[in-house]
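Re: Re: ligand-bound prediction request (bumping)

Still looking for help on this. To restate: I need the protein modeled with magnesium ion bound, output as structure tokens. Inputs repeated here so nobody has to scroll up.
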Amino acid sequence: MSNEEQSHLPVPNPQSAGALADRPPSSMAFPQSGEYRGHHDEDEINLLDLWQILVRRKWTVIVFFLIVTTTGITASFLMTPIYRAGVTLLIDREPPKVVDYQEKEVGVAGGVGLNNISVVDPAKIPLEFHTPNIPLNTLVAMLLGLFGGIGLAFLFEHLDDTLKQSEDMERVLGLSVLGLIPAISRPDKSLSGEGELALISIEDKRSAFAEAYRSVRTALQFSTPEGAPKSLLVVSANKGEGKSTTAASLAIHFAQAGQKVLLVDGDLRSPSLHRILETPNDTGLTHYLAGEATPVDISQPTTIPNLFLITTGPLPPDPAGLLGSAKMMSLLSTAKEKFDHVIVDSPPVLGLADALILGNLVDGTLFVVAAGHTRRAFAQGAIKRLKMGHTRLLGGILNKFDSRSHGYGYHDYYYYQGDSPSLLSSDQKVA
Ligand SMILES: Nc1ncnc2c1ncn2[C@@H]1O[C@H](COP(=O)(O)OP(=O)(O)OP(=O)(O)O)[C@@H](O)[C@H]1O
Ligand SMILES: [Mg+2]
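Reply:
Sorry for the wait, this slipped through. Here it is.
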């Protein structure tokens, strides 16, 4: 592709990407929350919302319930027991008129008045104490624990300012959601070690994780009239939100679709793509940027057909300076000529200039949010920085999404159990 052609490269328009929000293709894998609610009024707090909050915060409720109940029961047992016994007495108003002489003698001698009280029903020694009432105290403690736990769950929810749902991303960040990636709990860690989550897409193409990224790939293909942007940057506000996993997974999915893909590790501070794709990192981007290697020297084939990787190489003292050099720009424009897609992994946006620099060298940027982890203020700050740096934001990806706690009925288990295709619901099947 000539330079002139490059200048006419489709510029991903946030507005056109925004149109995806009406019906993002990612909804093929996950029903979007708005769709799920359908008839519910958005502003109205409905029972389903409340229930979802409780499911999400179930551990708060359970722990508080157990603490209060245990404390109540223990306190009841530690209290000094009080026993109660009853006796029925008959008291005559009138003292007996006829007094036995001997009885009178005894009464006078003992200083005791005449006895007009008689025991009708004598007191029995109680077998059980009167207080504390353990069954009642237990019941009260359980109710207090339950309602207190529910109250605490709602309080925490109110104080929690993390982004959790796709509507949060649309409403708070103004980003169209290009995909919801399920939070993966890996019961069998031998299948993929820590940091190699992206390889799930290779190990099991039918996994929920693979389906979700296939869906993102489809969404990207519709994000511009010319298809998916040739060069893509994956960013997020902070560390550990899933940039590298997303960059690697998308690269794998484009490669699986038969497109020639170059994945570039642009995180010159905390590189991880070489680990994820199990390639050596002896020679890499920094060698090329320092003029010690050519692009051909540093792009390594991977075990995945059509997928090539440029690792970072040794970490430099001034990553931003290197990334902003003319050589980096030239590398990316050459790569766009040779590959169908160039996907660049980035360090976090906040506190570093690297992502802003890289954002200006690519055709579009994907913003990753970790559901329930990324705080609104941080994400908003990052988006503001990206916009100020004139980065072309294509949309957002909500990663580590716990679908069950949002009532999607979409399971986050590693593999679909068994081979039955019926386990894939119709909305999970993608073109
Ligand atoms: N959908 C997911 N479900 C569960 N764990 C995930 C998911 N996506 C990523 N992770 C895990 O989160 C951790 C961080 O992911 P990753 O390295 O991709 O984030 P990052 O944004 O690139 O981090 P850094 O800023 O440190 O480079 C990894 O252990 C990864 O396996
Ligand atoms: Mg990373």
